[in-house]
Amino acid sequence: MTGQTIARRPNQLFRNLNAKIASIPMILTAVVIFLGGTLWTVVYSFTNSKLLPRLSFVGLDQYERLWAATRWTVSITNLAIYGVLTLIFSLVIGFLLAALMDQKIRFENTFRTIFLYPFALSFIVTGLVWQWILNPEFGIQSVVRALGWTSFTFDPLYNADIVIYGILIAGLWQGTGLVMCLMLAGLRGIDGEIWKAARVDGIPTWKTYLFIVIPMMRAVFVTTLVIIASGIVRVYDLVVAQTSGGPGIASEVPAKYVYDYMFQAQNLGQGFAASTMMLVTVAIIIVPWAYLEFGGKKRG
C-alpha cells in the first residue's frame, strides 16, 4: 500500500496540469499585490510618513495618536453599532423573507427580483436615494406632516445622536435581498421528507425551523455572516453619499478615516495605522470562519 501511495503522488501532482499553470499568474498577483501590499502598509504604519512614504520609524506613535483621536473612537463606535445591528437585522429579516418565499407563493420570481434589486445598485446611488427619503424638507417627515401630523419629526441624518441608524436603514434596504436569496437557496436544499416527518410528529412549524432547519443550514449562515461582516468593515460609500461623516463627525467610519488621512490630510503614517487596525478587524472575522469551515472538516 505504501508503494502504491508513493506512486500515486506524482500522478496527482501532474493532474490538471494546464489548469495549475493557468492559475500561476493569479497566484503571483495575489502574493505580490495583496500580501506584499499588506506587509508594506503594516511596515509604513510605524513610520512618520506624510505626503510620501519614507522609512522614518517612530515606533507606536501613530497608533497612540490614532487611539487618542476622538474621530477614530467615534468611527469605531459607529462601526460597532452599525455592524451588530446589521448582522442581527439582515439575518433575521432575510431569513423571514426566505421562509415566506419558500411557501411556493404566487409571483415568487417577481417578489424575489424586487427584493434583490436594491443589491444591484451602487452604495452611492443607495445613499443618495435614502438621503432624499430621509430629508425633512421633502422626505418622510414632510409627507407625514402634509397628511396632518404637523408635530411629527423624523430626521435621523440631521440628528447626531441617531444618524448612524439612518445609515443603517439604507444598508439594510440594500443588503437584505442578498441575504434572503442565500437563505432561500439553503431552505430549498432541505429535503422535503424532513417537513413531512415533522408534520407527522406534530412538531409546530416554528420549532421545525428553530431546532431542525436552522441547524441544518449552518454552512449557509456562516457564509452569509462572513459576506455581511466583510461589507460592514469596509462601509464607506454609503456614509459619504448620505452624510459625508456629519453632522460634525457623528457618522464617521474607519474606512472614511483612512481615506481622509491618506488622500486629504496627506498623513500616510496615520492612514496606514488606521488601515492596519482595519486589517486586524478583518483577521478577527476571517480566522474563526476559516477554523470553523476547514478545521472541522480536517478533524472529521
Automatic annotation (TrEMBL):
Source species: Xaviernesmea oryzae
UniProt key word DNA damage: no
Superkingdom assignment: Bacteria
Keywords of this entry: Cell membrane, Membrane, Transmembrane, Transmembrane helix, Transport
Membrane topology: Multi-pass membrane protein
Protein name: Sugar ABC transporter permease
Gene Ontology cellular component list: plasma membrane
InterPro entries: ABC_transporter_permease (IPR051393), MetI-like (IPR000515), MetI-like_sf (IPR035906)
Record CDD domains: TM_PBP2
Annotated compartments: Cell membrane
GO biological process: transmembrane transport
Domain ABC transmembrane type-1 residue range list: 76-291
Family indicated by similarity: Belongs to the binding-protein-dependent transport system permease family.
Transmembrane residue ranges: 21-46, 79-101, 113-133, 162-187, 208-233, 272-292
